[in-house]
Amino acid sequence: MLKKKQETKKIRLRFPPSPTGPLHIGNARTILFNYLFAKQNNGETVLRIEDTDKERSKLEWVQNIIDELKWLGIDWSEGPDIDGKFGPYKQSQRTDIYKKYLEKLLSEKKAYYCNCTSEELEAKRQDQQSRGLAPKYDGKCRDKNNISGVIRFKIESKKVKFNDLIRGNVEFDSGLLGDIVIAKNIETPLYHFVVVVDDHEMQISHVIRGEDHLSNTPKHILLQESLGFNQPEYAHLPLLLNADKSKMSKRAGDVAVSDYHKAGYLSEALINFMALLGWNPGTEKEIFSMKELINEFSLEKVQKAGAVFNTQKLDHINGLYIREMPAPILTKLCLEYLPEDHKNFSQKTLEKIVEVSKTRMKKLSDITELTNLFFEDNLIYEKDLLKWKEMKDADIKEALLLCDKELSSAKKWDAKNLEKILFEASEKFNREKGYPVENKGYTLWPLRVALSGKKASPGPFEIAEILGKEKTLERIKQAL
RNA sequence: GCUCCUGUGGUGUAGUCCGGCUAAGCAUACUGCCCUCUCAAGGCAGUGAUCCCGGGUUCAAAUCCCGGCGGGAGCACCA
After folding, report:
1. ipTM for the complex shown
2. Is the pLDDT reported for residue A402 higher than 50?
């Protein structure tokens, strides 16, 4: 039945962020689902900036939203940056359109001016709540014929039913609502009103939004009915939750896409992870490119319960993408997390550094800590760290001396050859000292610590190859 | 308080519509083993869910019905 409607009607989705802050991760996920649904159905997408709240909306946030969406690989067919046939795409520039409909409602007596004071309203609200009633406007100004004040929309008391593509049939009693304010004045319409007008004007076919809007839907439907608009299809996505299961937008921590961007998450990984929050393909596959998501996404497979945003899983997926990434590209992305003097290193060397470190990375920013050993002139570490198991200090020294000697005469300076040389040295050393022959730790551990200054690092051969002969021998001497 | 949505291991989820094939699959996290000079990565294994609870229907229920309880969201001259 859904199919039939779609055949006759063009699929048009909208991305409606509000520029009162940076692009929120929950918002980004909602937009992603809109995007996937649109792309899959060959539909069009509209980026609509919901900036009717002049106090809180800022231009810089509009830019942040556009930048981060593009970074994520989400594009749109119409929007404030590229325009389109249903523009303008910032609500703050659409006042005339809203005004027209506002006047229509007013003249048809479907809306009216109200000049109750906020103190008065607040008192009534308190009273209603204390009596166990849902707080709602009592309709005092309904028939007063005021000519100024806020504009209220007359909500008729009835059962409002609609079909949600994810939740099925949903029913609300609009009698519990009370007349809602749809505009502060004729020039300043409010959210519920503009959203309904714009969705109609922009010919939006499907409204896919967060579950927090589920109980707002009857207001929108009533408004549509009064205005004579068609009703779009609705789908309400489960909310993104904090670890304590509260709504994620109410968290103070990292909730902006730009936070994750800066921390070094890859856009592909973030997209993959976000898609899995509330959706699954019904198979055991869980690594998806955007292209695959577009093919395999379906609203029917969207979960109904809220999904906790689990950073551990994000880290895992991100690590996976990092490991899969070709060295040149990964290196380029890592550049900004490397110290300034990385410019003294050749592209080839930087690639090697990244290559030997990438299995340890969860995020791009990890590269800083993981690779500082390659960029520092003098390593600072406790001499004790050089000791493998219960080795004697004298033996550590001897092991390092041996490494120094063998490496000094190495002809081919690459990891593979160095490994061969050092394995032989290790065997020789263990035999002389009476250590277990196969345990290479007696030489390799002191060597690796001498080269890295860390208890965990890439192997000594890789490090040596990257450092080069001169620097390698220098570090060994410093450790002695 | 009222309304609506929702409820499978710590987390994301499969299975729920069309009851039995799985006393619950996968992934993550955690633990251990293997690999190994270390840490990762990789391979293997394990801990962890009486499927929110209580009734009912049935030969049989995570799956159907009823009643509770828990969680969340919304009830703005914010969006």
Report:
1. 0.94
2. yes
Answer whether CATH 3.40.190.10 is correct for domain A94-237. Answer: no
Q: Catalytic pick from A54, A250, A291, A389?
A: A250
- Residues whose CB falls within 8 Å of the CB of residue A472, separated by 6 or more in sequence, listed in order: A407, A451, A463, A464
User: pTM for the whole thing?
Assistant: 0.93
Q: Which residue is nearest to nucleotide B2 (CA to C1')?
A: A134
Asked whether the predicted pLDDT for residue A6 surpasses 70, the reply is no
Domain residue spans of chain A: 94-237, 257-370, 383-479
Which one, of A400, A355, A361, A359, lies nearest residue A374 by Cα? A355
Q: Is A400 exposed, middle or buried (0-12, 13-18, 19+ CB in 10 A)?
A: buried
Count the Cβ atoms, other than its own, within 10 Å of residue A162: 17
Residue type, A250: K
- Whether A250 is a known active-site residue: answer yes
Distance CA A239, CA A29 (A): 10
Report the alpha-carbon distance of residue A197 to residue A191 in Å, rounded.
10
Q: Which fold has domain A383-479?
A: Arc Repressor Mutant, subunit A (1.10.10)
CA distance A65 to A17: 8
End-to-end CA distance of chain A: 79
Protein CA at A167 to nucleotide C1' at B58, angstroms: 29
Select from 1.10.630.10, 3.40.228.10, 1.10.1160.10, 3.30.565.10 the CATH code of A257-370: 1.10.1160.10
| Alpha-carbon gap, residue A396 to A35, rounded angstroms | 61
